[in-house]
Amino acid sequence: MANGSAVATTCPYCGVGCGVLAERSAGGALSLRGDPDHPANSGRLCSKGAALLETIGLEERLLYPEIGGRRAGWDQALDLVASTFSRTIAEHGPDSVAFYVSGQLLTEDYYVANKLMKGFIGSANIDTNSRLCMSSAVAGHRRAFGADTVPGTYEDLELADLVVLVGSNLAWCHPVLYQRLAAAKAKRPEMQIVLIDPRRTMTADIADLHLAIRADGDVALFSGLLTFLADHGAVARDYVVSSTSGFAQALAAARALSLDETAALIGLSPSRLLAFYQLFARTEKTVTVFSQGVNQSSAGTDKVNAIINCHLATGRVGRPGMGPFSVTGQPNAMGGREVGGLANMLAAHLEIENPVDRDRVRRFWRGPAIASRPGLKAIDLFQALADGRVKAIWIMATNPVVSMPDVAAVEEALETCPFVVVSDVSSKTDTLRFADVALPAAAWGEKDGTVTNSERRISRQRAFLPLPGEARPDWWIVCDVARRMGFAEAFSYVSAAAIFAEHAALSAFENRGARDFDIGGLAGLDETQYEAMAPTQWPVPAEGAVGGRLFSDGRYFTPDRKARFVALRPTAEARASRDFPLILNTGRARDHWHTMTRTGKSARLSQHLAEPYVEIHPADARRIGIADADIVRVSTSNGAILVRALLSNRQSRGAIFVPIHWTDQFAAAARVDRLVPACVDPHSGQPASKHAAARIERFAAAQYGFAVLRERPSALDADYWALARCVGGWRVELAFARDDRDWPAFAARHLQKRPDAQMLAYHDVGAGQQRFACFAGDRLVGALFLAAEPVAVSRDWAVDQLGAEFSSRGARLAIVAGRPARGLADRGRSICSCFAVGANQIAAAIAAGCASVEEIGAKTQAGTNCGSCRAEIKALIERSALQAAE
Ligand code: SF4
Questions:
Q1: Which residues does 585 contact at the CB level (< 8 Å), separation at least 6?
Q2: Helices in 653-808 by DSSP H: which ranges?
Q3: What residue ranges in 315-396 does DSSP mark as E strands?
Q4: Is there an atom of ligand 1 within 6 Å of 178 CB?
Q5: Distance between the two ends of the chain, CA-based, in angstroms?
Q6: Spatial distance between the Cα atoms of 152 and 177, rounded to a whole number of angstroms
Q7: Distance in angstroms (rounded) separating the CA atoms of residues 748 and 235
Q8: Smallest CA separation from ligand 1 atom 3, residue
Q9: How do residues 22-39 score in pLDDT, each as one tens digit?
Q10: For residue 40, which atom of ligand 1 is closest to its CA?
């Protein structure tokens, strides 16, 4: 990138797909801002997007190929991958190998991986971690629309008079879309927002009505709505007749429960349920947004169809401000769907079960062996590894050892598999320890290609950094292996642009309007045009209208062009038991992403929630004997983890919530996949990650600790530890079951990295406290605070000492004496990541008279940059007002 010029690219995190401008100043400094011209975000970025530059450093990068953990050359590594895959296929057939890929891949990477597996190896054993994210939405769309089509656009959320958010914490998981919605509501306060979620998430703060239904109560709730619509004259009869089929059967099935029975089943009062039904029935312009709370369920596909049934019944599909709207978790989950990244799809939204489609793709690719049936979905794939059916697997850009359910089985499967290839950007993923061959992939900012966001908008990801070490783009790695397997001609691409051109041509091949995904109008782009391609919403046919809403003409992609109602059984499964009386829900935190391989590098993002935690209702906690900030053991029949307890009345009674992000790299035992069983939706194969029976017990700690360290500690020998980046180093929370250790030796092991470093110690026997500080010259190397109770030292103060100078012995002694910390204001839990404003500072501003988010922003700057914390600031203001009124 030339100094002074900006490169337009796309954020690599969530499915909103925000445009980003990366710019190098005349002095060479890199900066980043939201792209004002990108239609998804018009210049906005959330906290994660705004901190992207803090995550692109080369520490913990995989920079060279490795075989058996030792550095190898590319030729050697690629030859080994190609020859092992070829030999395994020759000896055991095409279904003995598999790829497990990722919604982090670019469309071009995805395209060639899918082409190699389905068109040249002749197996459909390629599945993606998007299976865990939105495959129920795909299955639901295909059942209802005859194609995996998202009908609407983001603008529909702003045009709607009613937005229903189902199982979607938009404020934390799709923050810029949330900001667009919040801005629309601020402009038109009469717009109604309903949140349907067992938790009162931050998204509830813009909701007019929150329905805290029981986990998996969605099918019953929307079946009840279908009945209500039919009984109150809200069905669009002409539309139902002309554009749909199956209404009578779907309605008959929905009538299985009365309104009172539905309300009782899902844990709501009939009047509250009725209020929602009446609002939905009378509001023509309604959008229903759904995401992981709907998809990640053993009834995920049915939930999707229960929602779509209500939109079909009212004819509210594909018109301005109307429609069901699936929002995807990952940046390129949609791109993966377009190229057939799921084991049960072919490329270009063609169907693997359809012989005409299979022949069409075979002819287009001129491949030797098109896959003849669907391949193994994620859970089945790892089971096939375990039982020896799959003997070689290539895992690309994903960390299944942390993200898959029933992790013990996944680890055993990878241990058993004779040949495991992992291509990744990070040298520190939990999956890499199983790799026979590790291949260094290009990271965000280094690679070129396209991604598709939740509203079908294809955007370019452009490189603005050089490739470090020997890292290579994923498409390059796949194509080189394909060439070495004997498929040189079909994988001779010279650039991502050439792959995109072929992908676009396939979408138009023998299409003639029969299939939704058609970007044939982009098939002729040359390198320069591809480089300049602006964000473009599909469809983009060679002739005809580009982008916009789909199905506005009431014609779908089924054989008779009518949408299908799906008859559903209105149930809500209850899985709690005497031994495991709580329901475990899992999900995302605001400032972290997936397994933290990127966001864990940012001090700013790591401060918002610096430890793994479980949210529990105060009444449940009281009953079990748990206090706020206790360390607790959360168990299911699958396993157990140790996390910090957060008491919150945002949590429903009887239910708990644990975030998905913490791995063995950041905590002693906090991987939530240890808890989640391998239970899947029968249609989509998507695991039910939000509904496991669990219990909680207090972990009886005899000693607590807190440390700040300049260098990342290794091998922390504590029962509980949680590590987070901070400015100048790392911060660690600790807890120990026993207090009879040699604590000076423990301190020396973790703090004294150089023999000439000076260690100071202080032991307050009466208070049960010990403090250690280690200095190299006038710099603090690390400090450790131990106490019989949770350590009360100000975390902000301790972190700040890593950047301070200690020129006198007196100043150094003051650290272990803890004197400077006394009377020092603690910022409190981080709320605003952009300006490092904590909860205590916001509370002080409220006490000083600030009564709105804007006034807090004027006084503290909190919430004035990316806006991701505005919902939390609003919640603090409201809580303070409630307390004042009590
Ligand atoms: Fe990235 Fe945030 Fe936009 Fe999602 S909302 S794409 S994480 S900037």
A1: 198, 199, 215, 655, 656, 657, 658, 690, 691
A2: 743-751, 795-801
A3: 323-326, 392-396
A4: no
A5: 59
A6: 14
A7: 73
A8: 18
A9: 998 888 889 999 999 999
A10: 3
Tell which one of 9, 13, 291 to mutate to probe ligand 1, the residue whose CB is within 8 A of the most ligand atoms: 13
Q: Is 720 in the pocket of ligand 1 (CB under 6 A)?
A: no
Ligand 1 atom with the shortest distance to the CA of 174 = 5
Mutate to test the pocket of ligand 1, among 173, 174, 661 (most ligand atoms within 8 A of CB): 174
How many CB atoms are located within 10 Å of the residue 549 CB? 19
**CA-CA distance, 706 to 704, in Å (whole number)?**
7
For residue 656 the two structure tokens come to 């708990």
Task: For residue 519, give the 3-state DSSP assignment.
Answer: coil
Who contacts 217 (Cβ-Cβ below 8 Å, separation ≥6)? 265, 266, 267, 572
For the Cβ of 605 lying below 6 angstroms from any atom of ligand 1, the answer is no
Characterize 746-770 residue by residue with b for buried, 16 or more Cβ atoms within 10 angstroms of its Cβ, and e for exposed: bbbebbbbeeebebbeeeeeeeebb
49 lines ligand 1 (CB under 6 A): yes
823 pLDDT above the threshold of 50? no
d(CA 712, CA 728): 11
Q: Which residues pair with 449 in a beta bridge?
A: 461
Q: Whose CA is nearest to atom 4 of ligand 1?
A: 14
Over residues 216-271, the pLDDT tens digits come to 999 999 999 999 999 999 999 999 999 999 999 999 999 999 999 999 999 999 99
Cis peptide before 175 (omega within 30 of 0): no
Neighbour count for residue 543 (Cβ, 10 Å): 6
Residues 624-677: pLDDT tens digits?
999 988 999 999 999 999 999 999 999 999 999 999 888 888 999 989 888 988
Residue at token pair 């063609």: 350
Q: Is 288 helix (H, G, I), strand (E, B) or coil?
A: strand
- pLDDT value at position 885? 62
Q: Where are the alpha helices (DSSP H) in 417-523?
A: 474-484, 496-508
Q: Is the CB of 11 under 6 A from ligand 1?
A: yes
- Residue 18 Cβ inside 6 Å of ligand 1? The answer reads yes
**Pairing status of strand 323-326 against strand 286-290:** parallel
Residue 683 CA to residue 138 CA, distance in Å, equals: 10
Does 751 sit in the ligand 1 pocket, CB within 6 Å? no
The answer to whether residues 318 and 269 touch, using CB atoms and an 8 Å cutoff, is no
Nearest C-alpha neighbor of 746 from the set 632, 633, 428, 738? 738
Mean pLDDT of the chain: 92
Q: How far apart are CA 700 and CA 456, in angstroms?
A: 51
Residue 114: both structure tokens together = 């899918």
Query: Which ligand 1 atom is nearest residue 49's CA?
Result: 8
